[in-house]
Design a protein that fits this description.
two-stranded antiparallel ribbon; six-stranded antiparallel beta sheet; 6 helices; homodimer; about 160 residues; alpha+beta
């Protein structure tokens, strides 16, 4: 039985009632990971979003020049990752490794498509919320890049 | 009369037919700008997306330390900006200035909301396409930031 409490307060479900969430619960899958487990690996196909119910993970990107992994984020309970892969199946932009035992509720791209056929209104609200979240992350990233004129040149 | 040709091939309308675009055309407004005109100013409220029909613009961000404007992008015919403000009305993340006479087709957040009430299917396709575009931009931005460990620290 999937506990949906973690979803209710998440921005992805803004404007969506508890009853509506309960009706789409079967499209979600609960996953468990041990400390040090790679949940996703950069470059491998990713197709799902993860809602961290319990635990902590680090998001790692490979530095092209050195091949070393560089930590770009840490996420824990209440955080979400994989938004980009949920809506656009493609190689994972980064690796994700559990820093301690971690439980996550996941929704795949296929599951999202099924939701669109099951309830277009809920689907469109979820996508709108997701787009806003990604947009806010892009805004922050652009702010960071703007601090460094040399990095800016890479964007042109 | 708004020429919708510029919209047909844009990713925002992926999966949306020409007939469907024609039916939502009245929600779009055509705007014209002279060389040097500020189309948007960083920090002022932005609420719309712009499809450049003709011309060229530069996207500028203010460097906090110096107050100077730093160019982070240039856009021309076929390019789009304001995706973030379309779905999330808030202070513009950057300024936009016309580098030469520029014509743009615009859609406001209010217009988008009207489309959602008029045709939920078209609306949800547009938002999905928009989310994918923003997601790809975030992916590129994260790649750039990953090149610079010192910038990474700002994200934690």
């Amino acid at each position: 039985m999937v506990d949906l409490t973690a979803l209710h307060n998440h921005s992805l479900f803004g404007g969506i009632t508890e009853d509506q969430i309960a009706r789409i619960k079967d499209f979600f899958i609960l996953e468990e990971y041990g400390e040090g487990d790679f949940i996703e690996r950069e470059g491998e196909t990713g197709d799902r979003i993860y809602f961290i119910i319990e635990g902590q993970v680090e998001i790692l990107k490979k530095i092209t020049e050195t091949g070393k992994l560089s930590r770009i984020f840490m996420f824990s309970e209440g955080d979400v990752f994989g938004e980009m892969e949920l809506i656009d199946v493609q190689p994972c932009a980064a690796s994700v490794r559990a820093l301690r035992p971690t439980t996550a509720l996941t929704l795949s791209n296929k599951g999202l498509h099924q939701i669109s056929q099951y309830d277009l209104k809920v689907f469109s609200l979820m996508i709108m919320n997701l787009a806003r979240d990604i947009s806010r992350r892009l805004r922050k990233a652009d702010d960071i890049i703007a601090l460094c004129p040399e990095l800016n040149k890479l964007k042109e």
